[in-house]
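Quick illustration, no need to memorize.
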Amino acid sequence: MSVESETPPRDDAPAPAAAGEGTFRRARAQTDESRQKSQVRYPITAWAGKMLLGTSSHIPLRLLHAVAGGAARLGSHFSVPETRITRANIELCFPELSPREREQLARASLRQTACMAVELGHLWMRPVKEALGLIIDLRGEEHLQRALARGRGVIFTAPHLGAWELAGLWGGSRFTITTLYRQPRVREMDQVYTNARKRSGATLVPADGSGVRAVFQALARGAAVALLPDQDPGRGAGVFVPFFNVLANTSTLLPRIASRSKASVLIGFAERLPRAAGYRMHILPGSEAISGDDLEAGAAALNQDIEKAVRMFPDQYLWSYKRFKFRPPGTPDLYGNKR
């Protein structure tokens, strides 16, 4: 699941209206319309991206990670957006660390982000069996088996932690799964994205009302769905609840679906092991509060669960993403956004 291509859609599946849902839908409609307008055609960019993915898929993963680490160390000395955003987020979320410790975490995070970028060729282009063979350990499978045994469906949510694309590939290979999907900004890359994510068996549905209805239908059959949990849904389209003790604009889509379907919520991520030794899948149970009637409390519980997962491997979280782009009125702008 990538930051660019997976964004929670508005929820217009038929159901009793919740408080504020009309405002939520209008805001999502405006946001979705602006995203459609932002789609552009960059054939040269797409061609270069495909070439890089294909070429990198034939280079040993250990060498790719080593090169990525060197590039990240070099980039940490320059005021590039990824470096500035990473440092701003870590300073905000880890006030208990000393300045030196925060800088060490920022540099480690930039290395992991670079590794994430260069490993996509292997995860997307190599044979599925080979890519899944990189997972050398699985922890928490008992939570998955218990959730499937309930027969109420499973909401599998993978935050931007570790190798999230591999987590999605693993999910598609293990059970019938429906994944919400939005086209990437560069239209010519759409086929690459969809082919990569469907090839282990996942069903991709559009991130709109029809896709949300497909999600409810899958859960009603006792199947699994995949939703992205940790993206800013846009101005006016979420609720402000704590994430690392910082108010973060958070989508209520996942709590809304969990509340109506009573499906089990699981958090999964693929830990990137040192020296390209492989990956370790982690499955964690979601809090019961996520499925409650109070959607704001559910969003807060979801953020707390994600935070627990991130604190296990804080350097492997995507701190270069503008998680706090939209802030409550009267609070300072973190990234120099235009209001």
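The chain has a mean pLDDT of 86.
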